[in-house]
Amino acid sequence: MCGSELTPLPDGVRRVAAFLQDAGHAELPRMLDGAARTAQQAADALGVQLGQIAKSIVFRRRADDRAVLVIAAGDRRVDEARVAALVGPIGRADAAFVKATTGFAIGGVSPVAHLQPPVVLCDRSLERFHEVWAAAGHPHAVFRATPQAIAALAGAPVEDVALEPSE
Predict the structure, then answer these.
(1) 66: burial class by Cβ within 10 Å (0-12, 13-18, 19+)?
(2) Residues 83-117 as b or e (16 or more Cβ within 10 Å = b)
(3) What rounded mean pLDDT belongs to the chain?
(4) What is the pLDDT of residue 5?
(5) Which of 6, 44, 72, 133 is the most exposed place for a label (fewest CB within 10 A)?
């Protein structure tokens, strides 16, 4: 790939594609016909289990106003108390904060290629799957990877930060 193939893609997708290419990741972003703003929409569009969607949830660390990105399985809910125990007190991040710090709109936040490097955690629940899909910088774009590759690409330690479905 020489790069000219990336031209028609939205800016965020091009940034993710360049990051993945530079990292030597074989799977580049795929544009979907419909939007995949939610994990369920992405799972339906790809024909995979909801848990195979590696959703990117952004919080705002109170101490320094830094973005905290949690990569979690689409069928799990992030436990904010567990995240805070690892990174310090956090709060909700609004759409403007997410866009300003990551460069991506909510619904297309990739786990990689952020404008400002976030604090990143990857939830262990993704390890249930051989492959997962993550947003690639746009609500219509995704890329495939193993859970281990997602954590490595994002520079994220793997932690238990999501609730089990029964919790």
Answers:
(1) middle
(2) bbeebeebeebeeebbbebbbbbbbbbbbbbbeee
(3) 94
(4) 52
(5) 44
The CA distance from 45 to 119, in Å, is 30
DSSP code, position 144: E
Determine the pLDDT at residue 6: 47
Determine the distance from the C-alpha atom of residue 90 to the mean position of all C-alpha atoms in its chain, rounded to a whole number: 18
Dihedrals φ, ψ of 66, to 5°? Answer: -90, 145
Q: Average pLDDT across each block of 10 residues of the chain; the chain has 167 residues. List them in order.
A: 59 96 96 90 96 98 98 97 98 97 96 97 97 96 98 98 86
Which residues neighbour 73 within 8 Å (Cβ) at sequence distance 6 or greater? 50, 51, 52, 53, 54, 55, 123, 125, 126, 128, 129, 132, 162
* Rounded CA separation 99/112 (Å): 14
Mind listing the pLDDT tens digit for each residue in 104-150?
A: 999 999 999 999 999 999 999 999 999 999 999 999 999 999 999 99
- Cβ contacts of residue 91 below 8 Å, gap of 6+? 59, 60, 62
- The DSSP code sequence of 51-91 is GGEEEEEEEEETTT--EEEEEEETTSEE-HHHHHHHH--EE
Tokens of 46: 């790809």
**DSSP β-bridge partners for residue 133:** 53, 144
